[in-house]
Amino acid sequence: MERIDHPVLAAQWCDKRRARGARIGFVPTMGALHDGHLALVRRAREENDVAVVSIFVNPLQFNDPRDYELYPRDFGADAVLLDVTGAAMAFTGTLAQFFPGSGGDLANVPLRDPGAAAEGLEGERRPGHFAGVATIVARLFELVKPARAYFGEKDFQQTRVVLELARALGGPPIEVCPTLREPSGLAMSSRNARLSPQQRVDALALSRALYAAQSAWQKGERDADALCALLARVAGASPLRIEYAEVRDPERWTAARPRGALQRAQGLLAAYCGDVRLIDTLRLDGAPR
């Protein structure tokens, strides 16, 4: 696997591969890779000629400077995992390299409007987060020009923002891949590395609440308020500090909770486990996993 430390050089590598007729599957990441990321890479490799991965802890999408500073970074270790998984190239860079006119100053990077999917929930609690996501993802698409791009379902609202972005840009096709979980049920996340053994047990309240809501759906519950109350009750019966326990129509994002009987439902949770913020999600009307 080739390791490239400048986005312009990575773009040139991609240009050469496309000129030879290769289809590029692209997985954007912030590093601290786990099996969930690697599953995206495997799918990108299987469905395309080559898999390319970006590793960049994007300061534009952090509304909490301390969270940005604490985010784990180890490009070398990530590159080893990607090599074993079959990625053809991984690249990184600095803010100044991704946005040459910025001089490395966040204030000099023009932010994209992330669209209506950024409203509510994460967008409300993390001001500017989705503008930062949309800005870097658009830049990455410009550099890599992938045939397909792959994102994990766990960051569900983010996938809605990216889908809107791709429509506005005219591509690429976006593949949203299922959340991978540890055997315990804990959703895989780079932030899990910051959890103590006891906190990992406490964090299981998120998946427990989502599965309880999915079970209620299977038994006929369709009222959004009732499903949200169940999510909050189950997740709240733990040491977690619940930030939100919500449902949305996964095919028609709304900032506010939908009213009336639902035809489809996505359960969404955010909570603090100690000082670590975790999110989790599950399609309630899907087949039980």
Précis, in short:
By secondary structure, the protein is an alpha/beta fold. It contains 11 helices and 9 strands. Helix 2 (35-47) links the parallel strand 2 (24-29) and strand 3.
Summarize the SSE layout with pairings.
Blueprint: E1 2-4, H1 7-19, E2 24-29, H2 35-47, E3 50-55, H3 65-70, H4 75-85, E4 89-91, H5 95-98, H6 122-125, H7 129-144, E5 148-152, H8 156-169, E6 174-177, H9 197-202, H10 204-218, H11 224-236, E7 241-248, E8 266-273, E9 276-283
Parallel strand pairs: 1-4, 2-3, 2-5, 3-4, 5-6
Antiparallel strand pairs: 7-8, 8-9
Helix pairs in contact: 7-8, 10-11
Strand order of the largest sheet: 1-4-3-2-5-6
Largest sheet: 6 strands, parallel
Provide a count of the helices. 11
Computed structural class: alpha/beta
What does this structure look like?
The protein is α/β, with parallel strands linked by helices and about 290 residues long. It folds into 2 domains: about 1-175, Rossmann fold (3-Layer(aba) Sandwich); about 190-285, 2-Layer Sandwich (Pantoate--beta-alanine Ligase, Chain: A,domain 2). About 40% of the residues lie in helices and about 20% in strands. The chain has 11 helices and 9 strands. The chain has helices at about 5-20, 35-45, 65-70, 75-85, 95-100, 120-125, 130-145, 155-170, 195-200, 205-220, 225-235; strands at about 1-5, 25-30, 50-55, 90, 150, 175, 240-250, 265-275, 275-285. It has a 6-stranded parallel sheet with strand order 1-4-3-2-5-6, with helices on both faces. Helix 8 (about 155-170) links the parallel strand 5 and strand 6. Helix 7 crosses helix 8 (about 155-170) and helix 10 (about 205-220) runs antiparallel to helix 11 (about 225-235). It is globular. It starts with a strand and ends in a 6-residue tail after the last strand. About 40% of the residues are buried.
